[in-house]
Design a protein that fits this description.
The complex is a heterodimer of chains A (653) and B (297). Chain A has 653 residues and is an alpha/beta fold. Chain A has 18 helices and 32 strands. Chain A starts with a strand and ends with a helix. In chain B, 51% of the residues are buried. The chains are: A alpha/beta (653), B alpha/beta (297). Chains A and B meet through strand 22 of A and loops of B. The structure holds flavin-adenine dinucleotide (FAD).
């Protein structure tokens, strides 16, 4: 074998603390290395051309590039080898950037370590085998999880492109947070007027199947061929029969059930249709509040239902769907602000969240769009907004900025003036973050045209003055004084956090999530809607707090990715899979038991039980190889021999 | 349960301005079967004057007492006074956190300090170690019908990282103990507001304003009494209540108890042991109302 080694400078990223020339020279002493050089940017066009030329000139049959993490550029260099006529798997990468130059300053030590890493890569490469991927068919259906504005956008774009879409929404209606909003910044157009028609399209589109009040139970398979179990939670209403007339809600005597759509501002009924424009507009029963289901009395709804849709016997149902791609669009939830004892910790009824305030402003809300404060139903004349509640606050474990709160607070200040012309609004803020198109102009309008008083400083305390108002005490850091404002209503601009159970969903999808539960994109700049799992994409606030325009943008982007994926004739499987050495296999079946992907079948060979790997299902995780008591299962490209050779290369002395 | 026992640091105000706090604390603990072992030859904790000018000196003053407690073989020191608590805890935490600091302190001490004991308020161990249930079992004269507001003051639970007790914004330990004794605790929103503290000397006007606000709010909520755990708070609200009244043109007559006095009363301890006669605003009308108002309501 003839091996070529290319040691990359990565500009000064590596060369700054590693003597790449010396590393290249040292490489020439390693077995079967016949060519070695340093190169400015191995990944650039001239860099790649240099590799191709060297392969041709020196008749190389394997290449090591010592540069950065294989995450980004392993595919790049494999293609380079292919262009030079080599098998792309006759390639190894030594990571001398993240593992060497970026973490140490001692040039000599770094240079030695880099040479060691190259030696390891060479020893592995000497034992590499040419591998060829298999081709397989794609199931051109896509699953969209979450029916907020991001999921809706993604689903409609896919459906319009001719793909079959399955949408799974946890609540009984799609729409997400946007459906709860009154108006939207920066144009102050009516939220349900722009979202409503999109929701109707979801219901009516022939390519879309919607499972509302459902959740993803489990996911198996791989890109192009996922199998998804969807749990349809029992609604106790046969949605095929329900017409959404609302008779049952009217007659339900259980009047203290929560009404999550209205953010618990007012109690709801045990049987519920969230709002008039709900999609699907169907009733569902909250079992733990239903008198019939808990005490076996009542049953009013069944009596009044004109279409005989109530079914108290209903059970959860599991449905299996097969899809080729998945878009996660599960959005966000609001931070539980009650940890802020200084704002009353939930003890004062007239301290509300921003989303509750949206419901108070909305014509479809519990007060019919008339702002009435919860304690006594009076119209507030002085409203104080407190920004950054559970946002940019390390003390509550939320150091990040939720991004949209500055904007929606300005919007709510404007709307307050529209609703109550003789009102005054005060906004306590830390900084105003309004970097979008027309955004800064919008916050200025709130101040200059609508007279909102912006006070730069944190609020230290909110307490009832005992006479019906709330005292809001904070700092005015521009004036350098303490300020106290007496308010009729206090609105907390509560920050965003990952949607409930995001980590659990991420694990089902086998994608990563960050310390706060937001899903991780493939690359923070270059792969904003991809994940590290092929075939799974992200859209909207599930990847990090973002406003509607950005969520919609990602919805379309994720759809474009799926459409691109499905535009291929066939997909190629990764050939780095497990392989059973039939002579060594004793047929114990342990590998089949441990395989998390069901990629191992037990078969018979000359009357003996043997294991067999389904190459297109195998994900190359290596669990079977570690389990096999005989060493009969080996992971191609990562065989025991290769790993041992690497260890030996490192422990020479 | 084995008998609760702790080293005890009374603090200087207990010898003078808050004698009744000291008396009632000892009487209450005895009645609850809690052993308070006074630190022999204890000295000033260094409160306010020392830590305002020199941290090492201040820590040495507290450290001496912590060292004496450790010599007694105790691993936890109790004090009723929040100011002492702050200083003792601060010294302990600083020395545990930095060998260098500890060395500096030890240079000033005759006997270098080794193991550093824990420091807690009497309130904390009543709430955490004995618990409201433990108090309730011993109540023989429940405070039925007595409406109180609990006032913790600004330092008892703050800064939270130092005090490591209760909530810094909405503490509830005294509330639960008072409820265990049968009192009705009103939702007082100013539990941790400043009373003006030692500004009473230099800026009396501040105390008139701040303490006045506390008394106004208590009155507005319909409280029969204020319950405190801090000598300085108690003094500003009780001793200066007349001054507050004349400065603000109010006519409050709110008795201001130490929580130990009211718990002691509920446990049926004799008045003399509770130092009720030391209070400026006459507590007797409120105490006599106990049990009676309930029928009316
Ligand atoms: C008070 C307030 C006012 C706002 N005002 C504006 C504004 O004026 N303009 C603007 O641009 N932005 C505004 N925003 C931000 C806006 O809400 C978000 O940008 C937008 O909702 C993000 O859309 P999404 O689809 O990513 O997430 P979401 O709206 O959160 O939708 C996610 C959907 O997924 C569902 N879901 C969650 N988990 C699962 C699961 N495991 N399985 C199935 N389904 C699941 C949820 O039920 C929900 O329907 C505001 C936010 C708040 C809090």
């Amino acid at each position: 074998m003839k091996i070529g080694v290319f040691v990359c400078h990565c500009g000064s990223n590596i060369e700054g603390t590693v003597d790449t020339k010396t590393v290249a020279e040292a490489s020439l002493d390693f077995p079967e290395v016949t060519f070695a050089t340093d190169t400015m940017y191995a990944c650039s066009e001239p860099g790649q051309d240099g590799i191709i030329e060297a392969i041709e000139e020196h008749k190389l049959d394997g290449v090591v590039v010592a540069s950065c993490t294989p995450r980004m550029h392993e595919p790049t260099f494999r293609k380079t080898l292919e262009r030079a006529g080599l098998n792309p798997y006759m390639f190894e990468m030594a990571n001398i950037r993240e593992h060497v130059s970026w973490i140490g300053k001692d040039r000599e030590a770094n240079t030695n370590k880099a040479a060691d890493l190259v030696r390891i890569a060479v020893e592995k490469l000497r034992r590499n085998q040419p591998l060829t991927p298999k081709e397989f068919d794609i199931n051109r259906r896509v699953l969209v999880i979450g029916g907020g504005v991001a999921g809706i956008q993604a689903a409609l774009d896919c459906a319009e492109a001719g793909l079959e879409v399955v949408m799974v929404e946890r609540e009984s209606t799609i729409g997400g947070k946007m459906a709860k909003l009154d108006k939207t910044f920066p144009t102050v157009d009516c939220s349900s007027c722009i979202l409503g028609p999109r929701m109707v399209e979801i219901a009516q589109h022939p390519n879309i199947t919607l499972y509302a009040y459902s959740e993803v139970e489990s996911v198996s398979g791989y890109v192009g061929n996922f199998e998804v179990q969807v749990k349809k939670k029992a609604t106790y209403v046969d949605w095929a029969k329900c017409t959404g007339c609302g008779e049952c809600v009217e007659k339900c005597p259980s009047r203290k059930a929560p009404d999550p759509f209205n953010e618990l501002l007012a109690p709801g009924r045990a049987i519920n249709i969230p709002f008039p424009q709900a999609i699907p507009k169907k009733a569902y029963i909250q079992a733990e509040h239903c008198i019939k289901l808990t005490k076996d009395k009542c049953g009013n709804c069944a009596k009044v239902c004109p279409s005989d849709a109530i079914n108290f016997e209903a059970k959860d149902e599991i449905i299996t769907e097969e899809v080729g791609g998945i878009i996660a669009a599960t959005g966000y939830d609001l931070f539980d602000w009650t940890v802020y004892e200084e704002y009353g910790g939930g003890r004062y009824p007239d301290v509300v969240t921003s989303l509750q305030y949206e419901r108070m402003l909305s014509a479809s809300g519990p007060t019919g769009g008339h702002v009435k404060r919860p304690s006594d139903g009076k119209e507030p004349k002085k409203v104080v907004f407190i920004q950054c509640v559970g946002s940019r606050d390390k003390s509550v474990g939320r150091p990040y900025c939720s991004g949209f709160c500055c904007m929606y607070t300005a919007k709510q200040a404007i709307l307050t003036k529209d609703h109550i012309p003789d009102s005054e609004s005060y906004v306590f803020y830390m900084d105003i973050r309004a970097p979008g198109k027309l955004y800064d102009e919008f916050t200025r309008r709130a101040m200059e045209e609508y007279g909102a008083q912006y006070i730069r400083g944190r609020v230290g305390m909110v307490y009832p003055d005992g006479e019906g108002q709330l005292v809001v005490r904070g700092a005015d850091t521009l004036m350098g004084t303490q300020v106290e404002v007496k308010a009729d209503l206090v609105v907390l601009a509560v920050g965003a956090e990952a949607a409930k159970n995001s980590p659990q969903l991420a694990e089902k999808l086998r994608i990563s999530y960050d310390a706060y539960g937001f899903f991780m994109e493939g690359h923070p700049k270059l792969k904003p809607v991809e994940t590290n799992t092929a075939g799974v994409y992200l859209a909207g606030a599930c990847q990090g707090a973002k406003d509607i325009p950005a969520s919609v943008g990602q919805g379309s982007a994720a759809a474009a990715k799926v459409i691109g994926l499905f535009s291929k004739e066939k997909l190629k499987s990764d050939p780095q899979t497990a392989l059973v050495d039939i002579k060594r296999c004793i047929g114990c079946g342990k590998c089949a038991e441990t395989c998390p992907f069901g990629a191992i079948n037990m078969t018979e060979f000359r009357g003996q039980p043997k294991a067999e790997v389904l190459e297109t299902v195998c994900q190359g995780c290596g669990l079977c190889a570690a389990t096999c008591p005989q060493g009969a299962v080996q992971l191609k490209h990562f065989t025991d021999n290769q790993i041992l050779a690497e260890v030996e290369a490192l422990c020479r002395f | 349960m084995s008998k609760l026992s702790y080293a005890y640091y009374p603090g200087c105000s207990g010898q003078g301005t808050s004698m009744e706090y000291e008396m009632s604390t000892r009487a209450l603990c005895e009645a609850l079967d809690i052993d308070l072992k006074e630190i022999p030859d204890w000295s000033c904790c260094g409160s306010t004057p020392a830590h305002a000018c020199d941290h090492v000196l201040s820590a040495a003053l507290s450290g001496r007492n912590l060292g004496l407690a450790a010599d007694m073989g105790e691993d936890c020191v109790l004090t009723p006074c929040p100011s002492c608590l702050t200083n003792l805890k601060n010294a302990g935490q600083h020395m545990s956190g930095s060998e260098e600091f500890k060395e500096k302190v030890n240079k000033l001490l005759d006997e270098p300090i080794g193991e550093i004991p824990d420091v807690k308020s009497v309130l904390q161990i009543l709430f955490e170690d004995l618990g409201p249930k433990g108090v309730k079992e011993k109540v023989i004269k429940p405070l039925s019908g007595l409406k109180v507001v609990t006032y913790y003051g600004c330092i008892l639970t703050r800064p939270p990282k130092l005090m490591e007790f209760d909530s810094e914004e909405n503490p509830i330990s005294m509330d639960r103990l008072m409820e265990a004794a049968g009192a009705k605790v009103l939702p007082f929103p100013l539990k941790t507001e400043c009373c003006g503290a030692s500004h009473g000397v230099a800026r009396k006007d501040l105390v008139m304003k701040l303490s006045g606000k506390l008394l106004d709010m208590a009155e507005q909520l319909g409280a029969d009494a204020v319950v405190t755990a801090c000598p300085l708070c108690q003094m500003n609200l009780d001793l200066r209540q007349g001054q507050v009244n004349s400065a603000n043109k109010t006519s409050h007559k709110l008795p201001v108890f130490y929580y130990t006095q009211l718990l002691g009363w509920a446990l049926g301890l004799p008045q003399a042991q509770l130092g009720l006669d030391k209070l400026c605003v006459n507590p007797m009308p409120a105490l006599r109302g106990i049990g009676k108002k309930e029928d009316a309501a």
